[in-house]
Amino acid sequence: MLRETIETGKAVSLRDLPEEVDPHDTRDFITAMHNIASVKADALCNKINLKKSKMLLDLAGGPGTYAMALARANPNICAVVFDLEHVVKLTREFIISANMEDRVVTQAGNCLEDNFGEDAYDAILVSNLLHSYNPSNNTMILKKCLDALKDGGQVIIHEFVLDETKTSPQFAALFSLNMLIGTQEGASYAESEYKTWLENTGFKHISRVDLESNSTLIIGKK
Description:
The chain is of the alpha/beta class. The chain has a single domain, classed as 3-Layer(aba) Sandwich (Rossmann fold). It is built from 7 helices and 9 strands, in the order H-H-E-H-E-H-E-E-H-E-E-H-E-H-E-E.
């Protein structure tokens, strides 16, 4: 399978996936994402400035772990976790368990098909999403983020970022191979690629912040 994937550039494993989503698999996946994000949440919160923000969108936020952590760290904000309908049903369970219902809510939608609002948010977190899509779709998603942000708002991309050779750091390179095997069009990308997408959609003052957990923040301002 690995050899065929590398030679063809296509995810052969997808042929055998069932059309219906298995709720048990979804719960296992979202729970795993919560556990991983819980380890990284404090470091991420320490690097994101939301002091002047009131509304945060956690795009494709899964269990809502980062949204809840950012809300706890910033009493001035409320957050919306946007994800697929079968995912946000589980997200609500995590929110209720954390007693965060008054600060964090959910919105069901598809990031490729639906808009995220207009001039509605001060900040949008796009964590571990863009590695699932090709450059064209990522540009479209970021344009929707720009539309949903208020003037002066920021988009915060959280990803495993490759260097310009696209062969390192090792973790990001291996993760890109994982995306090639497991998705139709996913990959890890270099900083220059994220910067190009942000600039092409109208973002300015683009900056990079490296976290200690093999991941990076790429931040753009509207």
